[in-house]
Design a protein that fits this description.
Elements: H1 2-19, E1 38-39, E2 48-49, H2 57-71, H3 73-87, H4 91-104, H5 109-121, H6 125-138, H7 145-161, H8 165-178
Helix pairs in contact: 3-4, 4-5, 5-6, 5-7, 6-7, 7-8
Length: 179
Amino acid sequence: MSNKITSCLASMLFLSGCAGLSTDQQSPAPVEDGYPPIIYDGSSSEQSIVDEPITTPYKRAQTEKKQAAATDPVVVALVDESKVLQQGGDIPSAVAALERGVRIRPRNPLLWAQLAELRLKQGQAVLAENLARKSLALIQSDQEQSLQAKNWQVIADSLKQQGKVEEASLANQKAKQLQ
């Protein structure tokens, strides 16, 4: 009986020792940490830091989103279609075009702002205010101050229609600060 236990223990020790050995020498994947790379050229004992901006994939994606929001062909086409329909007096179709755009590009603040303006023209003040606030929440940079000002003006006008004069005045001041 002890012979079986001894051989079992020996087998387990042997197998556990083999588990730690690996013939595959893999190194962990490189990670971008936002710091400039340190380059050692071997000529001196000091390392030098390369003076290049490092962008992480996240930062690149955010920059691309900001640029794409204004130049997205789908957004441009739907906003243009909406404007043509507005000029022709067909507000419901103009709203439908912008709502289609929001379904396609739900994170585009321009579409929400345009939709807020149309809803205000239709007399839907509460909805217009909420849409303008949604647009403000989606704006990702201070570079879009004109869009922010436009949203605050829609909010001010919608609050005025709702009889909230003091809040409308504050929103109007924010709009003027951003212009």
